[in-house]
């Protein structure tokens, strides 16, 4: 690709800015007015707790329906994202940067003593910028951390659907593209079916909202997780029937481990006496679950996530490493995150964590790591 053309394509147009603005406006309105289960978050240090309206699935289905109707009426093009991918990438990056400027300034000026808005300032500008200053900043009553991760996951699906529309329009739809799209749709729909489980994840509970999360949610998730789709749009891959079936098995096993582990953890936090695989749970020190998937590996959900990421890339074949950027990146990220998790848990649970590590020696990959 010509470098001049690439740089020109990265310059946001007013159309791309409008697309982004309409998208965020829709999510803000839909998230506020559509019915959904009101899920209480964890109790914070000051005794308070946030409540999250989990209506993401309804908002997503409604949005896709509106886009479909708009396309039929020639109000909107289904390929608007795939036609303006680089523009939207740069526009979203600039938006993320501007959002972080506002969050950092607002956080530094905050005088709140509550856990959600109390500023955590280390004096290291880069550290505070990257990891954030406040735990749960809000805008017009909208919890921004929950809002941004929802925007990123929906954005990933919308990019994929636009790529799919482009491949149909170009007459290049293949089995590889169908498998990739199917796996991603199932994964993203599953995320929104179980959206309430997100409220008990580390990102929501403990990570402050800094550039790491803002950029990660709005830019990294939708635009890098869809690399396989962009690659398939420009490269033809012929999958054998055996390869397609094997790919389906990788996805299925990954899904069962990922969803099963996260579901067990969420249920245990809500009801520590709930049966796990039909048996009373084994609990270490009254706090740590050591049954089910959590009795196999201490971060078994990461194993499921890695298998799913691999299944998204396998439809692209093995002719290029580019489609494998996501699983390679995710492997590095999760090993790094696992190390952070281990250090935090060792400090928090002390002897209880040591006992858990003795009982469950494997970190992510049973019998390997």
TrEMBL record:
GO BP, sorted A to Z: sterol biosynthetic process
Signal peptide positions (record): none
Keywords of the record: Lipid biosynthesis, Lipid metabolism, Membrane, NADP, Oxidoreductase, Steroid biosynthesis, Steroid metabolism, Sterol biosynthesis, Sterol metabolism, Transmembrane, Transmembrane helix
Gene Ontology MF, one: Delta14-sterol reductase activity
GO cellular component: endoplasmic reticulum membrane
Residues annotated as transmembrane: 20-38, 50-69, 89-108, 147-165, 171-189, 209-233, 239-258, 279-296, 308-336
EC number in record: 1.3.1.70
The protein's annotated pathway: Steroid biosynthesis
Membrane topology, from the record: Multi-pass membrane protein
UniProt-annotated location(s): Membrane
Pfam family, one: ERG4_ERG24
UniProt entry tagged with the keyword ATP-binding: no
Keyword Oxidoreductase assigned: yes
UniProt record similarity statement: Belongs to the ERG4/ERG24 family.
Protein name as it appears in the record: Delta(14)-sterol reductase
Organism: Corchorus capsularis (Jute)
Species lineage: Eukaryota, Viridiplantae, Streptophyta, Embryophyta, Tracheophyta
């Amino acid at each position: 690709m010509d470098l001049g053309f690439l740089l020109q394509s990265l310059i946001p147009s007013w159309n791309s800015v409008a697309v982004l603005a309409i998208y965020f406006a829709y999510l803000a309105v839909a998230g506020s007015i559509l019915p959904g289960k009101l899920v209480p978050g964890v109790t914070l240090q000051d005794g308070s707790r946030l409540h999250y309206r989990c209506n993401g699935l309804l908002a997503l289905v409604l949005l896709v329906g509106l886009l479909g109707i708009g396309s039929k009426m020639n109000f909107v093009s289904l390929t608007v994202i795939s036609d303006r991918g680089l523009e939207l990438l740069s526009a979203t990056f600039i938006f993320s940067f501007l959002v972080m400027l506002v969050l950092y300034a607002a956080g530094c000026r905050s005088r709140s003593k509550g856990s959600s808005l109390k500023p955590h300032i280390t004096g290291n500008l880069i550290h505070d910028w990257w990891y954030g200053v406040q735990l749960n900043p809000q805008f017009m009553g909208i919890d921004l951390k929950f809002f941004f991760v929802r925007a990123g996951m929906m954005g990933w699906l919308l990019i994929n659907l636009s790529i799919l529309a482009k491949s149909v329009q170009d007459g290049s739809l293949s089995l590889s593209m169908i498998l990739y799209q199917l796996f991603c749709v199932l994964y993203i729909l599953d995320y929104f079916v179980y959206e309430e489980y997100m409220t008990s994840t580390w990102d929501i509970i403990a990570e402050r909202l800094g550039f790491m999360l803002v950029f990660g949610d709005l830019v990294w998730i939708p635009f890098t997780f869809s690399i396989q789709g962009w690659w398939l749009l420009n490269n033809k891959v012929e999958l054998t029937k055996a390869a397609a079936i094997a790919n389906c098995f990788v996805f299925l096993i990954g899904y069962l481990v990922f969803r099963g582990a996260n579901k067990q953890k969420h249920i245990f936090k809500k009801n520590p006496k709930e049966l796990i695989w039909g048996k009373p749970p084994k609990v270490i020190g009254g706090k740590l679950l050591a049954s089910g998937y959590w009795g196999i590996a201490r971060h078994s959900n990461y194993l499921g996530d890695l298998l799913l990421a691999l299944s998204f890339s396998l439809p692209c074949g093995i002719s290029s490493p580019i489609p494998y950027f996501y699983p390679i990146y995710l492997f590095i990220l999760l090993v790094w995150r696992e190390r952070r998790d281990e250090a935090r848990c060792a400090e928090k649970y002390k002897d209880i964590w040591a006992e858990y590590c003795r009982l469950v020696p494997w970190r992510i990959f049973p019998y390997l790591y």
